[in-house]
Design brief:
The chain is an alpha/beta fold and about 240 residues long. It is built from nine helices and seven strands. The protein has a single domain (about 10-245), classed as Rossmann fold. Bound molecules: S-adenosylmethionine. It is an enzyme of class 2 (transferase).
């Protein structure tokens, strides 16, 4: 099947291997591309997520689909020596880049690296005070299953934050954004890392991701309470937050 933009869509059972291929391919250049493609704005989205997570000294934090570790690095400073941060990702290439980046930053003691699928987390029940998943959920094949797995490993009183591309609130912004993501993004991918396919996948995965209200409903179905979201940059990105009581 093809999307209305003419790109081939990926069948669900092929999705995981497509995602693996994409992130093995982009891992080395991932951080540079993030800055270029978002004109640096991803740093602001992440900063707002880190502030909203309100992680304190001594807490246990899971940065899921954490890739190159931008959030994990910030959390490591906040939890201090008595806390614990787990940087987890399904992809070992991304995890390796993350591990060496954090080591270069002098972050050693309180961060662990765990290769895991968000759909079946290898952690005990009721373990983490806070879980974040930034620009990760849309890559997961069974998103509902992943949200349920996250709810299971959250402590009662803990919170889940999902930072993800979402649906722009105004039609004009939406049109502009479509043009950007379906033409400029793959072109930048081609010119900078000679990989337009990965960036076509990126645009497609953004387009197919559930909108704000749908994702909120999925979090509620997973058993989380007080779920709400904040739109950023006109809804291009949304930060969803939910609690386990
Ligand atoms: N969180 C980082 C950030 O915001 O820069 C990385 C985001 S990157 C766009 C998406 C990450 O999700 C990749 O590192 C990819 O390997 C990971 N991922 C994809 N499917 C996953 C799954 N089922 N479970 C865990 N991680 C997954």
């Amino acid at each position: 099947p093809t999307t209305h933009f003419g790109y081939k869509t990926v069948a669900t059972d092929e999705k995981a291997s497509k995602v693996a291929e994409v992130f093995h391919s982009v891992a080395a250049k991932y951080d540079v591309m993030n800055d270029l493609m978002s004109l640096g704005v991803h740093r602001i989205w992440k900063k707002m997520t880190i502030e909203s997570a309100a992680v304190r000294s001594g807490q246990r934090v899971l940065d899921l689909a954490g890739g190159t570790g931008d959030l994990a690095a910030a959390f490591s400073r906040k939890v201090g020596e008595t806390g614990q941060v787990v940087l987890s990702d399904i992809n070992d290439s991304m995890l390796k880049v993350g591990r060496s980046k954090l080591a270069d930053m002098g972050i050693l003691g309180n961060v662990e690296y765990v290769q895991a699928n968000a759909e079946s987390l290898p952690f005990p029940d009721n373990y983490f005070d806070c879980i974040t998943i930034a620009f990760g959920l849309r890559n997961v094949t069974d998103k509902q299953k992943a949200l349920e797995s996250m709810a299971r490993v959250l402590k009662p009183g803990g919170r889940l934050l999902v930072l993800e591309f979402s649906k722009p609130v105004h039609k004009s912004l939406s049109t502009l954004y479509d043009v950007y993501s379906f033409t400029l993004l793959p072109l930048m991918g081609k010119l900078i890392v000679n990989d337009s396919e990965s960036y076509k996948y990126l645009a497609e995965s953004i387009r197919m991701h559930p909108d704000q209200e749908t994702l909120k409903g999925m979090m509620e179905t997973a058993g989380l309470d007080n779920c709400n979201y904040t739109n950023m940059t006109g809804g291009i990105v949304a930060l969803h937050k939910g609690f386990k009581f």
